[in-house]
Structures are given as C-alpha cells and as structure tokens.
C-alpha cells in the first residue's frame, strides 16, 4: 500500500484497500492506516528543495484529495497534509505553498466538506500568522487575512472583531523629550540652509522655487506624534482631560496643514504622478510611521502622508459618534454637546483638507465618504448581533433561463429592433407624406396670433404699455418668424435714403397692422379704426391752426397785414435753427427732407440749419409754408412761431 501511495497508483490502492477492509474488523482502522501513509509521504516531500517542492506538493495534494473523494481516507486528511507541509517548511517555502490553499478555496467551500474542515483551515492560517512578523512579512499576512475573509462566511464570529477591541499594543515611539527633538530639528534646518561645496549661488542667479518649507517646532513634533496613542485606543477620548489634550494637539496640527496647503499640480504633472504611483504601488508600502524629527517637515509636504493622518482622524471621529453595543455603559462613553460639536466641525475640516490635497482630491474624498458610509452599515450589522444574510435571501428556487425563440429573417417585413420603433415607421405607407400631414402642423394661423396684439394696439381698449405682449422679447422673436413666413409685406424694398429700422417694437406693430388689412376678419375693423384716427388727427390740426391764426392776429404788431407771408432770410434761418436745435431729430421728418449725416464736428444747430436751408431753397423761403408743416408737432410749432415772430420784430 505504501508503494501504491508513493507511485500515486489508484488501481493498486483500490485493490489493497478492499483487501484490508476484508481483513480488518472495522473500516476505521483501514482509514487510519491510509491517513498515516499519506501523511508520511507528505513529510518526505517537505525535505525536497524549494524549487521542486511546490510541484511535488501539488501532485501529492491532488492525489490525497481524490483519495478522500473515493473514500480511501478521512475528510480532514487533505487539509492536515497541507498543515504538516506548512509546519515543516520555512517561511519562504510557505509563501509558495500557500498558493495551494488559495487555488482550492472553492473546493474547501463545498457543502459537506466545509463543516468538517473549516476549523482545520482556520488553525492552519492562525499558525502561519503566529510565525510571521507583522512588519517584516506584511504582504504574506495580508494574503492570509484576505483568504480568510473570502473563505469564512459573513456570520462567522471568528472573522469579525465582534467585541470591538483595539490593538493597544501598536505603540508609536518618538522623541518625547524636547531637548532631543529640538537638537535634531535644529541640525536638520541648519543642514538645509548650508550650501553644498561648489554649488554656491553666483551674483545675479535666481534661486529655483521649490516646495514650500514647513517650519516644525519641537512642540509641534510632540503634539503631532502624541496623537497616535489616541488613534490606537480611542476609548481614552471619553475621559475629559484626555479629550482636551487631543483637541489642543489636533487643532494645532490641522492649523499647520491649513496654513501650508500643498500646491495644486498641473494636469500633466498630475498624470505623471498617477502613472508613477501605479508603477510603484505593488512594490512600496509602509506599515509603520517613521518618527524621526528630521523627517516630519518632509512628511507634512507629502500628500500620501497627509492622507494617512487625516483618514485616521476621520475614522476616530466616526467611532466617537457611532452607537455601539460594546461600549461599556458603566464608563459613560458618550460625548457631551460641546465635544460632539467639535468632532463634527473638525471632521468637516479634515474632509476639506483632503479635498485640497492633490492629486484628485475631490475624487478621493468622494470615495472615502462612500467607504465610511459602508463602514457605518457594518457597524449597525454588528450591533444587531451579526444576523445571517441568507435569511433575507429569496427562498424560492431560481427559474431556469429560457432561450428566446429565434425569428427567421423576412426581407419583406420591416424590423427596426423594437416594436415601438417599427410601429413608428410603419404607421403610414409614405413617411414623408405623413410628416406633411395637417395634424402635424403646429404653427398658429396669422389671424389667431395677431388677434390679441391688435386689441392691445387699439386706443379704445386703453391697455397700459407695460402689459402689452409686444414688449416681450420672446413674443417679438415668434412674431418676426411668423410674419416673415406669412405676411407678404414683411420684407420689402426700402429707400436708400431712408433711415434703417432700429426699434423692433414699432416695426412689428406696423407689420401686424398692415397684415391685418389683408385678412377678412380684421379688414373692416382696421378701416374703421383708420377712419377714426384720421378724423381725430384732422380735428387736432384744425384746432392748432385756429390757435395759430388767433395768436398771430392778436400778438403780431410788426406787420400791418397778418396774412402777409414772411420771407426767411439766411439770418432768420440761422436764428430759427438755433431755437430748434433740440428738435433736430424730428425736424427732417416734419419738413420732408432727408436728415444729414451727423459727425463729431457738426453741432445740432448746424444740422437744423442745413435742413431748413435745403427746404427753403425748394419752397421759396416761405415762412407760412414752413409753419404749416411744423404744425403737426405742438412743441415744435410753438418754438418756431416764437422764433420767427421775434426775428421779424427786431
């Protein structure tokens, strides 16, 4: 049997196993004998050199596993074989052999096997952890802990810090005496200020701008590293004097970080930093802080170091505010109102500092908040005595997936992938004609659109200016679009001498009024309105003319004949232009003359004189004809009448 095991011959082992069972009084004796021979073979493999040991161990383990499945040995024998190999091998060999445990994790979790071998696997991992140094073999310890976290179920109490204990043995050693710290800090600063031989700066040379130097005093050094005792045992903070010391030291450190923020990297520098970090992330890691006074100023200038410290503080703050069933009620482990406010405000400050710490500070803070939120959920789960998640799972049997029937391709039918899209394209035989259908025309008719604005423009309606829809910029845009499309008089050939339109409101009102004349619904009302406006304008003109004639008869004493038409000389025109200078913009329109172009060296009086001069040359310098034209504007006619009267009385 021993030879069959050494050669890993299943056929011979099966025959020998049957023969032993016939001779033995109990099957257990046969299993025990096979277990002993398999373990003996495992001890022999442990003496093989390391470069061949892993391969022989893998073959032997697979052989033992198949023996267990065939019932030739006990269920625990595969795990015990691996455990014996680990115990008799060096740490370097265990790092390679542990890969067998990781490779077969899914087989260990099979029902019927995990119940009998879970404790053995846990014992194997714990024995390895006791042999390893947490600082020297950190990576291997992490592999083991990661394997246990995946192998053990969530409800396994051995994989959970159920009582919430802290590792108080994690002590951070530093120079606690001010004299020693001050001497080291002074030596560091003097060394930094002393120039290297042969590298003195020449006259006129500009020193390169480097990282901003952070001044670290011995007191700051002591305050910074004294916080680590509270980080390893947060329960100390529930004592009033300890909390005051923690508050004083932490506030000083955060103030120093706030006053010395790290400079933001450019996009190119940030990308280079990310690529560099990815290259070294698998090789470089730190398990313990370096507490030399020479290094603290450099550490505070390092973004990773700042993040380590600020994350520690945020974790402590979450613990202090969290409700835990394992905080002893007898010790009154609850913060008062003032302490709780400080913890909340300082936590926000830590998040702001993390957000300002480059690279990718904002993204880093978002990920950290998500992690802390998940951690709070795990805390609630532990407070509820770690209930089994499987109890909330769906108890029903999972339905088998049914394959969708394949639809053969039919070139005569249109299939655009989804029923709704296919329906959209098959509603009408001609899609373009369907787009031109009347029901798809959403543009309002011109009559419906201008009905309300026309009523607002009617003086009889007495609509105040501020409430008219024509003042709305959005309405003006829609009106311009619709009138350009519907109104034939919107675009017309303009006179070259005519002044361009600058008032959009007046332009649209005029076009809507003209467009209404072409619509039967508004034609009669528009004509009636124009008739009334013409009559009112005629009455106003007659009234002004009568008033002008009356004033001329009563007040005119310069000429014996009031009906005499005065002839305007150049001096009269100059005086009249000076008096009408404030109406220079109205004057050209009233007398029907094109307005001269304004320049910087031309005054309003000159503009009025040119307008009056041009008109008088065309109309025989008739003063009465000029007054008859100016009568359309009451303000202008009064000034013009007074000016002409005064000029002829001189």
TrEMBL record:
* Protein name stated in the entry: Death domain-containing protein
Q: Which domain of life is it from?
A: Eukaryota
**InterPro entries per the UniProt record, alphabetical:** THO_THOC1
Q: Specify where the region named Disordered lies, as residue ranges.
A: 550-569
**Lineage in the entry?**
Eukaryota, Metazoa, Ecdysozoa, Nematoda, Chromadorea
**Pfam families registered for this protein in UniProt:** efThoc1
Q: Where is the composition biased (Polar residues)?
A: 553-562
Q: Name one GO cellular component term.
A: THO complex part of transcription export complex
Source organism (scientific name)? Caenorhabditis brenneri (Nematode worm)
One GO process term, biological-process aspect:
mRNA export from nucleus
Residue ranges crossing the lipid bilayer per the database entry: none
């Amino acid at each position: 049997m021993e030879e069959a095991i050494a050669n890993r011959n299943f056929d011979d082992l099966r025959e020998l196993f049957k023969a032993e069972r016939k001779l033995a009084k109990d099957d257990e004796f046969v299993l025990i004998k096979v277990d002993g021979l398999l373990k003996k073979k495992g001890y022999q493999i442990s003496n093989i050199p390391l470069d061949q040991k892993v391969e022989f161990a893998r073959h032997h383990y697979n052989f033992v596993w198949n023996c267990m499945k065939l019932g030739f040995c006990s269920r625990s024998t595969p795990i015990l074989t691996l455990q014996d190999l680990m115990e008799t091998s060096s740490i370097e060999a265990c790092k390679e052999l542990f890969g067998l445990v990781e490779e077969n994790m899914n087989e260990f979790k099979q029902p019927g096997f995990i119940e009998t071998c879970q404790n053995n696997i846990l014992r194997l991992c714990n024995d390895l952890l006791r042999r390893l140094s947490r600082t020297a073999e950190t990576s291997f310890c992490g592999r083991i802990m990661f394997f246990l976290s995946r192998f053990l179920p969530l409800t396994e109490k051995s994989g959970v810090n159920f009582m919430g204990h802290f590792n108080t043995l994690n002590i951070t050693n530093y120079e606690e005496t001010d004299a020693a710290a001050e001497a080291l800090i002074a030596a560091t600063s003097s060394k930094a200020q002393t120039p290297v031989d042969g590298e003195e700066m020449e006259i006129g040379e500009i020193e390169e701008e480097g990282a901003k130097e952070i001044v670290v005093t011995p007191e700051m050094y002591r305050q910074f590293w004294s916080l680590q005792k509270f980080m390893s045992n947060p329960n100390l903070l529930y004592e009033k004097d300890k909390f005051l010391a923690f508050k004083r030291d932490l506030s000083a450190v955060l103030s120093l970080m706030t006053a010395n923020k790290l400079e933001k990297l450019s996009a190119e520098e940030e990308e280079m930093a990310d690529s560099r970090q990815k290259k070294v992330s698998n090789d470089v890691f730190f398990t313990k802080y370096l507490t030399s006074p020479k290094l603290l100023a450099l550490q505070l200038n390092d973004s990773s170091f700042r993040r380590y410290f600020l994350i520690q503080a945020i974790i402590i703050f979450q613990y202090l505010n969290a409700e835990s069933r394992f905080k002893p009620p007898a010790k009154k482990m609850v913060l008062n109102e003032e302490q709780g406010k400080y913890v909340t405000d300082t936590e926000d400050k830590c998040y702001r500092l993390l957000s300002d710490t480059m690279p990718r500070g904002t993204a880093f803070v978002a990920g950290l908040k998500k992690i802390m939120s998940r951690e709070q959920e795990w805390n609630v789960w532990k407070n509820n005595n770690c209930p089994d998640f499987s109890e909330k799972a769906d108890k029903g049997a999972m339905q088998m997936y049914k394959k969708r029937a394949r639809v053969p391709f039919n070139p005569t039918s249109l299939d655009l992938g989804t029923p709704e899209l296919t329906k959209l394209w098959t509603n009408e035989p001609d899609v373009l004609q369907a787009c031109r259908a009347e029901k798809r025309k959403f543009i309002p008719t011109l009559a419906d659109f201008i009905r309300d604005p026309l009523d607002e423009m009617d003086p009889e309606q007495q609509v105040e200016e501020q409430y008219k829809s024509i003042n709305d910029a959005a309405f003006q845009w829609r009106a311009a679009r619709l009138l350009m499309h519907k109104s034939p008089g919107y675009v017309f050939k303009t006179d070259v001498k005519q002044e361009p339109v600058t008032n959009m409101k007046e332009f649209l009102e005029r076009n809507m009024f003209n467009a209404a004349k072409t619509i039967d619904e508004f034609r009669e009302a528009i004509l009636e309105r124009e008739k009334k406006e013409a009559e009112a304008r005629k009455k106003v003109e007659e009234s002004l003319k009568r008033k002008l004639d009356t004033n001329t008869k009563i007040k005119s004493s310069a000429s014996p004949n009031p009906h005499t038409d005065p002839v305007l000389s150049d001096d009269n025109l100059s005086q009249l232009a000076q008096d009408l200078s404030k109406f220079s913009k109205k004057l050209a329109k009233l007398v029907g003359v094109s307005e001269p172009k304004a320049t910087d060296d031309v005054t309003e009086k000159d503009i009025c004189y040119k307008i009056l001069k041009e008109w008088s040359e065309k109309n025989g310098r008739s003063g009465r004809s000029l007054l008859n034209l100016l009568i359309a504007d009451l303000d202008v006619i009064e000034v013009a009448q007074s000016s002409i009267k005064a000029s002829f009385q001189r």
